[in-house]
Amino acid sequence: MHRSLISLAVALALAGGAAAPVIAAPKPSTAPAAESTTQLPRGVRPLHYDIALTPDAASARFTARVGIDLEVAAPTRSITLNAAELSFTRASLASDKGAAQDASIAVDDAAQTATFRFPRPLAKGRYRLTLDYSGVIGSQAAGLFALDYDSEGGKRRALFTQFENSDARRMIPSWDEPAYKASFALEATVPAGEMAVSNMPVQSSTALADGRVRVRFADSPKMSTYLLFFALGDFERATANVDGTELGVVTRRGALPQARFALDASKDILREYNDYFGVRYPLPKLDNVAGPGRSQFFSAMENWGAVFTFEYALLLDPKISTQSDKQEIFITAAHEMAHQWFGDLVTMQWWDDLWLNEGFASWMESRITARLHPEWNTALGAVGVRDGAMARDSVATTHPVVQHVETVEQASQAFDEITYSKGEAVIRMLEAYVGEDAWRSGVRAYMREHAYGNTVSNDLWRQIERAAAKPVRAIAHDFTLQPGVPLIRVADPVCKDGRSTVALSQGEFSRDQPERKPLSWRVPVIAQIAGSSAQGRTLVAGGKGSVSLPGCGAVIVNAGQSGYYRTLYAPKAFAQLAGGFAGLAPIDQLGLLADSWALGMAGLQPASSFLDLAQATPAHADPQVWGRIAATFAGIHAQYAGDAAGQARFDKFALARLAPVMADIGWTAVDGEATPRTNLRAQLIEVLGHLGDPATLAEARRRHAAMANDPQAVPPALKKSILAVVAQHADAPTWDALRAAARAEASPLVRDTLYGLLATTDDPALAARALALAITGEPGETIGAEMISTVAETHPDLAFDFAVANMAAVNARIDASSRSRFFPMLARGSTNPEMVGKVRKYAEANLAPEARRDAETAIAAIQDRLKVRAQRVPEIDGWLARKGI
Prior knowledge:
The protein has 26 helices and 30 strands.
């Protein structure tokens, strides 16, 4: 599953390898291990599901029959499985050894289970359980759901499924847990003229007398329930063949050309993955199915053989799509295709080890992007990935990468920055420690051994350790079984006889518990002298270590930025690096900027250290370095909210640094310019507009006004950025004009973008109008929640209070997986001390105690912002005063 929290990240070059063998057939299914967590009674396991589905899109209902081949391991008189919002009409059980038995049916809505009790006890053996039932087709992405959209022929409705993490039970009564793998045979009775898509190719299609068609798909291999997929609609499909696999893209009619880039990208990605994993993709086809709208929980889902992706993350609309959109489409495709191995072929045993799916897919998306598109220079994104993880990991509400999950709500909350971004960052660090060849060999062995099965993290560490002949497991356990961020303190280098020695010590970086006794990690450290290519490596263990390097000069610790830790230099060592900042490699410039900002905000070094580096950054620095500086300036600007004079002083400094960079880049792209430069242009327009730069505001408004008569005034590459500036500073007539444009827009991608922009306004009165609009039917059932979230970025108190006051309407626009986190998320940007009590009150009234982690994390974020405003912003004021600003 791909989420918006995932940043574009670093990847290491892929070494060549032998051709990958094909796994011809699944291994026999293995029963869930006795120690595996389960919410169901043990002793019965499914082997195969035979599903006959009849959806009625117009009435938002479906009827179905499922026949489940199962094995009873111990005598019992009842069978309990998962079911949610299903109504049963009949249940019967048959075996080869006796007459069929009808069962009594008891549904537990709270537990999301159905229990079938039989008049005669069941002996050990194999049976077939047949269930007739019906269910609902929802409007949000959980279970079987509908997405409505406009087409040339009028309103259309398409159906899709979303089952991760625990929503297969909304369409199929099943053992809806990852360790209960089984094969699936799916048939669907659908309207003639519509296309049905599932994990496997269509095996047969039979026309019925009533004008419908019965479509049967080939049997799937053994897989977890959450990977099953079904879609139905007025679709088109394009295909290509790679290594014997039919790759496809499926879109609403008329949008197929917009999926061409995704299809072409998938061809290259599949070839690389077939080689890297040492196991060729085992299914006969792999579709990527586009759906309109949005979810608050995810952007794409890795259903085996039939990835689902929302249109904004799959299609390139020539009217509005940017270079950044193109890169995100590639990244999303790479993430979901990586899951076809990490997650689908080999699946974590229980949600405790979700990171085995998501951390690895995130790491693979980054490495394959850097390998196949070096011109994008995405390797620098590693620092952003690490920062996203550390921001979450440095407060008391964090959790280990491998976490204990008991409930559905806890499983939903596990899809966070720790699982994705920390998982990715730790993998990158361990690969750098053992070497990419040894790492790949271990991954290949892991795939071969556990294909079609379930694993825990130690199954992977065992193979990596064997391949690397290094003690990897102990380091991996330090970083995955305990939470938190190591802090490596760097003493001033001592140079003697042409070599530099640097003493290192390990603490812990915590934003809200600085006095707590630090945890202990074994930390792989890479260091080098600035300007030299020679590296020194060491393992800081027991809290202390040192590294020796050839040469003398400023020492960069965490050179290349592969380590998962914050680096705190002694003042003299930091001053040396700051003095030579312009000469550092871009990724180390980014690392030093990131650490100085985080450490400054935590009070571990002057809060102005980041500003010293920003002032030392040359105009010709890498575009992504300037992008990092611009984004941080926007964050500082926001910290001054309510202090107009202080904000104006800071903005004067920020504009003085950014305006010359924008002047150099210009508003017009140059033929053949580097893609990071293209991306920086769009980012600078938005940030300069955010800071209220008069020249940027005037130019954006001029171009927007000219757009109707001069198509060149707002080129597609800048359309989102120009509209963002206009929308943020809109008055009521401008806001009304943007809304009218949204209502008239035919392109779903453009339309959704425009409705989202209505929620970005600085004007509280217009923001209130955007909130009211969000819970009407006008923007679309899946766009309203996104609008509320967007309002919260600028007006968190307004958005939170509105959402709580309209809870029923808001909950109707959120998929079930998002409810425990959506409301707290709205509040996390608040600087109002009263918001802490409001979030706690909401959580106590609406969330089970075990589902309140996101609420407590939001509270920690509010408290951190209050501390920064009280303690760090005055330090920035002092720095500006000393500079005469």
